[in-house]
Amino acid sequence: MSITELPPTTVSPAYERLSAARKAEVVRELSNVLGERYVLHSPYDLTLYEYDASIDRGKPDIVVLPATTQDVAEIVKIAGRYHVPIVPRGAGTGLSGGAIPIYGGIVIVFTRMNRILEVDVDNLRAVVQPGLVNLHLSVALGPQGFYYVPDPSSQRSCTIGGNVGENAGGPHTLIYGVTTNHVLGLEVVTPEGEIVEVGGTTYDTPGYDLTGLLIGSEGTLCIATKIIVRIVPLPEAVKTMIAVFDEMDDASNTVTEIIASGVIPAAIEMMDRMILQAVEADTHAGYPMNAAAVLLMETEGLKESVAEQIEQIVSICRKHHARVVRIAVDEAERQLLWAGRKNAFGAVGRISPEFYVQDGVVPRTKLPIVLRRVSEICEHYGLKVGNVFHAGDGNLHPLILFDSQIPGEVERVRQAGREILEVCAQAGGTITGEHGVGLEKQAEMALIFSDTDLRIMQQVRTAWNPRQLFNPGKLFPLPGRCADIKQL
Amino acid sequence: MSITELPPTTVSPAYERLSAARKAEVVRELSNVLGERYVLHSPYDLTLYEYDASIDRGKPDIVVLPATTQDVAEIVKIAGRYHVPIVPRGAGTGLSGGAIPIYGGIVIVFTRMNRILEVDVDNLRAVVQPGLVNLHLSVALGPQGFYYVPDPSSQRSCTIGGNVGENAGGPHTLIYGVTTNHVLGLEVVTPEGEIVEVGGTTYDTPGYDLTGLLIGSEGTLCIATKIIVRIVPLPEAVKTMIAVFDEMDDASNTVTEIIASGVIPAAIEMMDRMILQAVEADTHAGYPMNAAAVLLMETEGLKESVAEQIEQIVSICRKHHARVVRIAVDEAERQLLWAGRKNAFGAVGRISPEFYVQDGVVPRTKLPIVLRRVSEICEHYGLKVGNVFHAGDGNLHPLILFDSQIPGEVERVRQAGREILEVCAQAGGTITGEHGVGLEKQAEMALIFSDTDLRIMQQVRTAWNPRQLFNPGKLFPLPGRCADIKQL
């Protein structure tokens, strides 16, 4: 059968909610495998697993906590027999609703599969379980002088399995790439409950790059049970600096010129006035509250090269009218500057009851015009917006403030979000940099992919996951979403 | 239909050789699209396309030279109507037989699709056609201060389309990764003749990473017609050095210690005595002819960091008893050292009528033991072997010398090659670093993949390319290979 002859997959598969009797049966089978303790099914126990860090919600029927790959394979087989959807969940920090069980079913939580299985320093590899918290790997490697590069802002809680599912990025993506650039191989469980290894410990394994295909597939193709990652030596020197601007455009143009000059810092983050004020009130990191924009930049490497990079960056900042350029004098100040950035989303919580984060990408050179359009769009809808983002990558994160108690406000927020993504797509960019498509951006996939492109992708899903029990309703539009999704 | 329910694909599809009448018909249809001039079909014209840089051979029925994506799509549709296999071909420099039309059919040659379509320096992107010679891109970018990183030793002739098909590497893979790390998006023609775009200009596009899947798929899933690549600024400083050792183990241990120390040079290449003698006789690059091994190393970046790296590398080399450490004093000497390395395969042609290059990968720490085993295996079969390889990556290239006029020698060479790959696999490595599987290593896939792993891969092929007209007989074993393959 040809990939283009496969049936279209936009028709919703039938997921009947489990009856009480049937649910009891599934719970019993799962308990036989995992022990009763690791099969949650009371309404109270399930509440925690209804939401993640997005704005959607959905109730699971059962939550399971496997301890081994074999457990996961058995769970998948049981789910298959009862035709029950399966949603894998790391720490629930995802921003696009990837871990929301919109059709109910079984949520697999990886809390118990959180071990570092192997560290091979000489060959710069480690093997970990999916439930390992991102930061814990670097903490464990630190004493030996190594770390794991991808550093989402949620790295203190998010898991490496979740990072693999969403192909997560972070501030240091600029120079080091996203999760897919740091994962060399996976052990996965397929929708049939088979255990398969893809990739390996080397850079380029023969045959198809299934590792690349599976990373970022948002739980729709497989469930990762073991992850082989690259580890790298800690840099000899790290310097962190901020540059303060009275005009957003000056900050944007600084970013473009730094990159084009050939200096590629490890990170270039931008924060605008609204964010600076929120961050400063919250973290007291020493950010100016009256500036139009601040760039937080970091360079790392050998001492001498860091010193030279800093010199070049300072001179480019000055050329673009930076009011102040300040280099952190010690590790404490450096950590404080980063704490301000990494807690920015939380800090915004102080000034608004709710907020919605967008995640568009544009070519760096288009930053000035796109940031202006973001302001105009939000102004048009009477919404406040702040920007805190990976400027070096052109990866925007506009935070739109709102209050769902105000009638119509949520719809205006969603509409503004959509228009921002349209602007990003028109500028030659894309609709998500690192947060994933999930439930949030299914419709927006059409902004950047043709019907043929989307059909090819959906048919890859159909080939792997024909009954669509693995994370159904994500990535591609499905009609008839369940009624119990929180209707914003 | 489930991916695991798809029919097994190891059964050879029926490719009947085209009858003269039918061939005339196909030629006529192709000529209507391309013009007669760009459809080659006389035995004389076809001779050139029977072989690539591997040791296999196969006669095409027709060779076509398309000028546009639309041409390629039309060719694919015509081939589909007549059930004729299609093999894409770049410059024919591949070492694993990927461009050999073992079942005959149509070979698509991309000589006319060799343009740079777009260069966007500010956003570090370029868009090229598949027939562009690898080095031509860097040459074109040079005056603006940029280059394209992947640099296979054949870069003066190989094409970027071919590099995409094989996921090619090169000496600088060590720090910068292989082709897949430098390609962000593709326009491809599917086996149905549809034109599809995958990926884009940004790092992480939403949905499945089909770009990753297609790169390195060796022509079995699609034909690339447009390639979006990353370009990077030329480094401020580059220093190249050689270290001369009297013992292979000292050279190997130096490599391991350099990497583990956190200094990651841009390249670490190793050459053994046999190769040094051949290279020196050919290129007069100033390599010692009586050493056991030489490491050719390069560091690049900002001036200061290069100076510091060189200092650290020299001290590690001395610790491991390097007899001499010499840094190229100027660009001319640097180019000469590299010319010696990049012409090594050619130089070996001076001392042996034929040679066979293997391409295994092992963890760096296993280099000493594996190199010893390579010697023992070749000695056992009475064969001479030289080693010239990407030591930093643990990517071996043993060159086994032979003379096919000596009865039984070819079979001994193949057997030695097989045993070397077994040793690599047992050492936790893999069977090809950068040359691909092609025709050469189909059987060896089983050394590193389980039956389930291989079935999943083959079923991906079946889903995309159900009639297996795209480069049939490659990557996975197919019984009943054609009789006109040169039987070594």
From TrEMBL, chains A, B:
Domain FAD-binding PCMH-type: 56-234
Record InterPro entries: FAD-bd_oxidored_4_C, FAD-bd_PCMH, FAD-bd_PCMH-like_sf, FAD-bd_PCMH_sub1, FAD-bd_PCMH_sub2, FAD-linked_Oxase-like_C, FAD-linked_OxidoTrans_Type4, Oxid_FAD_bind_N
Swiss-Prot/TrEMBL keywords: FAD, Flavoprotein, Oxidoreductase
Full protein name: FAD-binding protein
UniProt keyword annotation of Transferase present: no
Keyword check for Oxidoreductase: yes
Names of the cofactor(s): FAD
SUPFAM superfamilies (UniProt xref): FAD-binding/transporter-associated domain-like (SSF56176), FAD-linked oxidases, C-terminal domain (SSF55103)
Gene3D superfamilies per UniProt: 3.30.465.10, 3.30.70.2190, 3.30.70.2740, Uridine Diphospho-n-acetylenolpyruvylglucosamine Reductase, domain 2, Vanillyl-alcohol Oxidase, Chain A, domain 4
